[in-house]
Amino acid sequence: MIYLDHNATTPLDKRVLEAMMPYLTSFYGNPSSLYRAGRIARGAVETAREQVAALVGTHPSQLIFTSGGTEANNLALKGLAATLPVGTVAVGATEHPSVLETVKALKKFGWSVRTIAVDQNGRIDRAALDRMGAGDVRFASIMLANNETGVIQDVASLAGILRAHNVLYHCDATQAAGKIPVDFSSCGAHLMSLSGHKLYGPKGVGALIIDRSVALEAILHGGGQEKTLRGGTENVAALVGFGRAAEIALDELEQRRRHLLMLRERLEHGLNAMPSVTIFAQQAERLPNTVQFGVNGMDGEMLLMEFDRRGIAISSGSACASGGREPSHVLQAMGIEPSLARSAIRVSLGVSNSEQDIARFLAVLQELVPEREAAHALGIG
Ligand code: PMP
């Protein structure tokens, strides 16, 4: 299989599995136990905390482990809503469902939700954000990098606008961490979500970074773990894996970025030669591994299935939205025409992809798009 869906999830790095194995076998102690086996597990959890904190340039004491990006987003948004007077929360129009659905759930508790528009390249409308900030917005959630288009927001400047209005800022950095440099303190956010399985770590593990100045209410009450913000016995092996994956990501960030960019450029060169293809958000700064595009007159889900039949795994948008009939909310927010949005395909590259994978993908795409255009793209029409 040629796997081109790394924004959905990544394979586990062998070095990560190696680091995890002892905690799935020999070292089974509970980190809260006081005897030696417990202390070994506790030590492993704290090392993982240091490793993940280092990836995003923060102090380990500001990091709470969760069961993933979804839980980190829930904890941030529900946790803030529970401590602040009821008011308005602002969210970017292209946020992940784990943010959009969470703020929708806050409506039951009297909160109003305002959506911050994006331009045709998926970038947050700064003037709209500034106007909103001046209202009764208490906190805002704007992602660092979008899972579908790969669009990277200028979060430091958006945080500046929000801070000027005393609005607390949560940043979902799930897709960015491990792909581009992420620095919690210089990005200006009060809260930041991360996930293990987007950076060659295990699934079902994530983290929320919480600035010392921010008070949060727990959503999972229990045995007092994670500074009482997230009760439940720690998933030690998964945390160890997340830590090791973060450590490797930090070490290899530049090398990965260069490799992915080289592949993306090849892919986009091929796509730009096909008249029926429109690359979305091509003018915006994007993740080095992500290209989302529409193919005029085609259906994205149909293309996905055809690629699958030929042993290539791609997405037609976010994995969570696959199977839905509505065109992607991200592309809709960018003002992409619904028929073109329905033809969307997302290719998200990973460290083990090669130039041959790109060549094969382009060859299959040319086989699938209407013949006239394929011939044209190949220079024989
Ligand atoms: N936010 C974004 C931007 C994502 O892409 C994802 C994963 N699709 C999540 C949050 C949720 O992360 P997890 O799968 O770890 O719950």
How would you describe this structure in keywords?
Aspartate Aminotransferase, domain 1; 13 helices; 7-stranded mixed sheet; alpha/beta; binds 4'-deoxy-4'-aminopyridoxal-5'-phosphate; 381 residues; 2 domains; Aspartate Aminotransferase, domain 2
Description:
With 381 residues, the chain is α/β, with parallel strands linked by helices. It folds into 2 domains: 2-9 and 253-378, Aspartate Aminotransferase, domain 1 (Alpha-Beta Complex), CATH 3.90.1150.10; 14-251, 3-Layer(aba) Sandwich (Aspartate Aminotransferase, domain 2). It has 13 helices and 12 strands. The protein has helices at 14-24, 36-55, 69-81, 97-106, 126-133, 155-164, 184-187, 236-272, 300-309, 329-333, 338-342, 355-368, 371-377; strands spanning 2-3, 63-66, 88-92, 112-116, 137-141, 168-172, 191-195, 206-210, 277-279, 290-295, 312-313, 344-348. The strands form 3 sheets. A 7-stranded mixed sheet has the order 2-8-7-6-5-3-4, sandwiched between helices. A 3-stranded antiparallel sheet has the order 9-10-12. Helix 2 (36-55) packs parallel to helix 8 (236-272) and helix 3 (69-81) runs parallel beside helix 4. The mean pLDDT is 95. It binds 4'-deoxy-4'-aminopyridoxal-5'-phosphate (PMP).
